[in-house]
Write a structure and sequence with these properties.
Elements lengths: L33 H10 L2 H28 L2 E2 L7 E2 L3 H7 L2 H33 L5 H13 L2 H11 L6 H8 L11 H29 L3 H9 L4 H12 L1 H16 L3 H6 L19 H11 L3 H31 L1
Antiparallel strand pairs: 1-2
InterPro entries: ABC_transporter_permease, MetI-like, MetI-like_sf
Main location: membrane
Keywords: Cell membrane, Membrane, Transmembrane, Transmembrane helix, Transport
Amino acid sequence: MTSPPVTGPAVAPRHRGGPGPARFRPRRTPPAGTARRARRGVLAHWRQYLAISPFFLIFGAFSFFPVFYSLYLAFQRWDGMGTMQFVGLDQFRFLLDDPVFWMSIRNTLAIWVLSTVPTLFGALVLATLLHSVRRFKGFYRIALYIPNVTSIVAVAIFFGAVFSNNFGLVNAILGTVGIPPVPWLSNPWLIKLVIALLMTWMWTGYNMIIYLAGLQAIPTQIYEAAKLDGAGPVRTFFQITVPIMRPIILFTVVISTINGLQSFSEPQVLFGSNAANPNLGGPGQAGLTTLLYFYQSAFVNNDYGYGAAIVWAFFVLILVLVVVNWRLVQRGRKS
């Protein structure tokens, strides 16, 4: 007796070495109305875009547009009132032969070196000491960070009174031990030193907080192992802390380079520089920084085209120094 045939869907025969049965492939093209729904989804959040639009409008009007407009002014001769006159690269040619510009570059670089090196090293040392403190750690953090949030004008006035040639507190203390008054604000190198001390006092606490955050991420087992191997505090600092903190040190070097080269308010307030006192930067213009020279050219001499050329040339210098510092620190990290 034969069994009845099995009924069911027909199965396509599979050929040896050939493809199998045809399968259903979904359509890859989006269905109609998808783009319309996407546009409707963007428009559905118009309230959120409207809420954040003031920031972008203000940024575009007062930051983005002035940057590119200053680049346009660098190729013009304009006093701020009359018609502009296109001069091409004449502003930059005159810049290369301007002795005051190169003097401001030298002053800026000297102040930057005198302030950045002690700032970063002192911040790292203070962060290491504060990391080992058990009590009143929050108080020390606030006390060391307060100078960074203090008004730079108030700090500059304070330093001007402390380092005054005739009635300064520093000279009064030196006089008690028989040392004659020091011309802090008239000697060319001492002027740079006072400005560097001002910047160091303001920015050490800021960098210390960054270093302290990095130190807190280092496992304590590393220091315990180093202590068991007989490493002292100095050796632990230079052979363990500094190599591990190298990426954070790189970040602070870049930020300090940008901030240190943009010194403007410190010499301006310290020496009472304004339109009525065109002798910017103190005696002999020893404290004349590049941004202060830009201020003199644009807003005192009303030469906005040359002022724009100064800041764009200075921007290129800052960019080059940042890249050089980055490569130096990265090379030390690879070695």
